[in-house]
Amino acid sequence: MDEILKELPPGALVLDLGSAQGSFARGATLATAIRFDLEAPARIDGEIVVLGDAAYLPFADGVFQAVISNHSLEHFENLERSLGEIGRVIHPRGALFVSVPDASTLTDHLYRWLARGGGHVNAFFSPEEVIRAIERATGLGHVATKTLCSSLSFLNRRNSPLPRPRRLLLLGGGFEWSLLLYTWASRRMDCLLHTRTSIYGWAFYFGEISSHIPTAASLNVCIQCGSGTPAATLKERRLVRSWLPGFRRYTCPGCCATNPFIEEKNLR
Ligand SMILES: [Zn+2]
Predict the structure, then answer these.
(1) pTM (two decimals)
(2) How far is the centre of ligand 1, averaged over its atoms, from the C-alpha of 38 (Å)?
């Protein structure tokens, strides 16, 4: 979503729809962010937070230069009406970022099983169907699709709410060594055997975006904070180190966790 956020000028408004604790840092854009969710976040820290239902957005027509819907559509009870509302409040020449899980993946199955549904009320199986539904509802043209990988950071003990679900014990207990091993093994398997064990979902870009959007899957996703960083960026910032023979690691630029480093390849 950084490609969109970086293009917004001071004074522009960006809607962070279904923001939870915030889909992006305040410093990621010069625009003013309006965080919108059903429930108030644990910390507000001077942010503009509006509470409400995505199917009835309390904003004027075309007021947002950008809308960010980061893993929120799967939670919306009234999806069709919510998409219509996104189309209403976004400027006709605005930019839209949407990410959703692929309900056919191992990662999404694990998430739903562990969290007993995890609040996911909508399941998406086809990127083409998601694109068609959003284009129809918003009138914005599709620009790019990026495949998203997971590091199962939702299993990380640091991120699990207390008391931790007992089912976590069957998934390595959420210890970072187990996530590190899984992340490395799943990437290697997907690259060699063309399986989809590391894939989580898709990110879609719509509307007027002038920046180039790299569509290769970001395989380097942090096991602690869940943020993905392109391999080229990690190398430029000298965050990649040798570890064991044939095994490299990188330090996450966001949270400093140690992660397995994987060269990027196109996954489906
Ligand atoms: Zn991190």
Answers:
(1) 0.84
(2) 27
